[in-house]
Amino acid sequence: WGDFQVHMNDSELIRQNRGLYGARVNLNSKDTTRFGEKRGQLSGFAAEPGTVPGRDEFRGTGGSLYYLRRQDVQEGSEWVAIEVRDRDTGLVLETRTLVPNQDYDVNYLQGRILLTRPLMSTVSDHRTVHNGGLAGQPAYLVVTYEYQPGLGRVDDLAVGGRGSYWLNDHIRLGLTNYRQDSPGASQTLYGGDVTMRWTEASYVRVEKARSEGPGSGATQSLDGGFNFVGRSGGRGGADAHHVEAALDLDDLGLKDRGDARLYWQDRDHGFSSPGQLTTGPDASRKGADLKLRLTSISQLNLHASEAEADSQRLRAIEAELENQVTRRWSLGLGLRSDDNEVRTPTASSYLNRAGVRSDLAVKLGFKPDAGSRSDWSSYGFVQGTVDRSGDRRRNDRVGLGGDIRFNDRFKLNSELSTGRSGIGAMLGGEWQRNDRTTHYLNYGLDPDRTDIGFGGRQGDLTSGTRYRFADHGSVYGEQRYSHGDGPTGMVRAFGLDMNHGDNWTYGLRGEFGDVHDPLAGDLTRRAGGGSLGYHDLRLQYAADVEIRDESGTTGNRTTWLARNNASYQLNLDWRALARFNVSFSNGAGGNFADGEFAEAVAGMAYRPVANDRLNMLLRYHFFYDLPSPGQLTRGGDFADFAQRSNILSLDTTYELNPWLALGGKLAWKHGEIRDNRIDGPWFDSQTWLGVGRFDVHITNKWDAVVEGRVLDITEADDQRAGVLVGVYRQVNKNVKFGAGYNFTDF
């Protein structure tokens, strides 16, 4: 019971990574199969976290700095990973979970991820044929986390579990279930899977899952968090199926000859699962890979895939023959043929090019002997289109590339090619100047990149520096210039995180940039802020101030935000806490475009150590809320109102004797609401709540509780009263159970 991380990733269709607070149980059998697997495993959790899950997916920018969609992230709730996805089908080929402090640093208050190493937009797949201007597969940074979306308490119940059992050494059955009750994002996910294993590396896995409800969705960003596009699942029920198989050729008696793999996945329209959102029509994807070592110096690679939706179907097949001609020289031959069938034309003429195209490529590589003083390699390639039909354009291309490591701290890699579609270029370098300072520079130019919302030329130049002051602080700076047919502009970001001694922490940050998108329009952002923190044995304080000015196609807006949290231990018996958050946002549309909120909380707790017969909690809460013009009510209407409230409450318990304790609560709320955003009278109401409580210790193992409750709403002349009762049984020092009933309707 407590804080824990949920990592349910054994199911391909139902994956959950959340940081929660609640109950969790893990059961593992001691018996194992002959392959070392636990014979039976059962895990489950139940939590009412009071937070909402977020999932952000960033296409690699060549930089290290990424801004999350949300700020004030729940500390320790993040899960960060790099995903490499298939360029044709979008299937996740590789997932590498990052380790905090080792692979990345996170600032929870500012919502910022700083990677130890830059992440390029494309990762080399060592294939001979260039499908586009740059060879490789797209790379994404995926971050899941918990956040609190507003002022009020989030009514969210998250329950889930996974169970699996090996009937024998070769067959395993698995069941997965997950449910969350969150306003606007309620969802149920459940499914089953069967694994049939021949040997450790040869198996077949079949899985089926169903989703009901939209879930929390996801946001995607192509520029490191400067702009986001939201995606959400369907509200109805939808099914998904997944089949995968792997075969080690050793199991067929072909020792050290290679392996084979195939997969098939089908998702109905509206299926919603983290990483498996199907926002459009039904989608399916299938593929197969074969790696076959022909001789000691040659290998054959085959790859086939198909991605299908109502709007489009893309089929591709590739064959490669790799030959190690000498110790230094290698020769590769590659053939790729793909068929693009357009069923429903899109707004992009590039993506609407239907037909078949076949490309043939030759690649020559050189690498010095292992004993050479030089640590470098190079390659050159020539490819041409040998057949095409329909609207497909030729993919003739010639290029050179390579990498060189000058020493343990400096490495450079590059590629330059030209062809019918234009120049393609990639340059990447990282210089670890010393143990504290790292500089990096990355540039990528792709003449036919398609993930920017349409096909076209896109170039990104990113440079940055990270510097750490011993153990006391660090500074970072990053500049990113984008040009081409997609989003263009310049973005600069910098920041400082510093520790002064063991008590004080400081932070400064800034972000300046212009982004011009052919779909979203123009945006200019100027943002700056700072943070301050102090902690010792008694006092904990954190503050953050931010100002952001944005102007563009949709208008101008200036936003101020200040956050303050403090807690102070007066002595062993008394503790005080306070919180003050305020934000003002002024839009170009006048008061009708404003959004504001203010929240102030002050509380005192008396919990004596030497004599705990009397315990008290006193709290004052003020909030004011003017919804942003983009917010809607639960009924889907425009939030054309403002509200403010003052709430004062006192809770107390006093133990009269060992078998009887008296308790009570008295709370008062003065609320006001105005049914207009800018002017008009405030309508107020007063509410009183009174609770009287008796805790009775009947015998050594039995307890009972009785509460009397009164609720009074003055302006409505409405009063309600009732009783709650309960009985409990003490099992041992750690466990008791009971039952009760609330006779009131509030």
In angstroms, what is the radius of gyration? 30 Å
Seen as an oligomer or otherwise, the chain set is single chain
Low-confidence stretches: none
By helix and strand content, what is the structural category? Answer: mainly beta
Shape, per Cα inertia axes: globular
Rounded mean pLDDT is 84
Helix content: under 10%
Compute the number of helices.
0
The largest β sheet comes out as: 35 strands, antiparallel
β-sheet strand percentage: over 45%
What's the end-to-end separation, in Å? 29 Å
Number of β-strand runs: 45
Question: What is this structure's SSE topology?
Answer:
Blueprint: E1 2-8, E2 16-28, E3 40-47, E4 52-59, E5 63-67, E6 79-85, E7 92-97, E8 104-107, E9 112-119, E10 122-123, E11 137-147, E12 157-166, E13 171-181, E14 187-197, E15 203-212, E16 218-221, E17 229-231, E18 237-248, E19 258-267, E20 283-293, E21 298-309, E22 312-323, E23 329-342, E24 355-366, E25 375-388, E26 397-405, E27 410-419, E28 422-432, E29 437-449, E30 456-469, E31 473-484, E32 488-500, E33 504-517, E34 521-535, E35 539-552, E36 555-569, E37 574-587, E38 590-606, E39 614-626, E40 642-657, E41 660-674, E42 683-697, E43 702-713, E44 718-730, E45 736-742
Parallel strand pairs: 4-16
Antiparallel strand pairs: 1-2, 2-3, 3-12, 4-11, 5-9, 6-7, 6-11, 8-9, 10-11, 12-13, 13-14, 14-15, 15-18, 16-17, 18-19, 19-20, 20-21, 21-22, 22-23, 23-24, 24-25, 25-26, 26-27, 27-28, 28-29, 29-30, 30-31, 31-32, 32-33, 33-34, 34-35, 35-36, 36-37, 37-38, 38-39, 39-40, 40-41, 41-42, 42-43, 43-44, ...
Please tell me about this protein's structure.
- It contains no helices and 45 strands.
- With 746 residues, it is mainly beta.
- A hairpin with an 8-residue loop joins β41 and β42.
- The two termini are 29 Å apart.
- The mean pLDDT is 84.
